[in-house]
Input
Amino acid sequence: MSQPITKSSAIDPLIESNPTSKQYPKPIPSSSALAIDILALGRIVLGIASFAAPTLALSPLKIDLPANMTLLPRVFGGRDIVIGEWTRMVREEDKNAAEGGRRELKRAMRLNTLVDALDFAATGYGVVTGTLDRLSGGLLAGTALTWVAMGLWALRGL
Output
């Protein structure tokens, strides 16, 4: 005669009988999820624009780009495409992971926030040294700070 399966049965020694909130976290708050999606898609769109048409992408900032300097926006555009797609992929792929996908998503959001903070610092350096005018610097710095704030908001909810 077979024995009934109980909580202390040998077949589930690693699984607790009452799941904790750490095992099954609450869903990501909708405002954090929205911030993550906006950052990921925004980074992809900006990356594609910078990669495909760097002169056109920089024209709203009144940055004249000589033809031999289009490589740099393309390099950074490629970076943004990859980071944005990785963030989007992690958000979609890890939803059903045991920890709710939070571990890798936190890494992605930390990276996004750090990249945007460095963009802000580089913009400030450009304004201070005179290689970037104040209007263009203000637009770039404002965008970078907005993205940093959104990244921190998203991390708060993870």
About this structure: The mean pLDDT is 85. The longest helix spans residues 102-129.
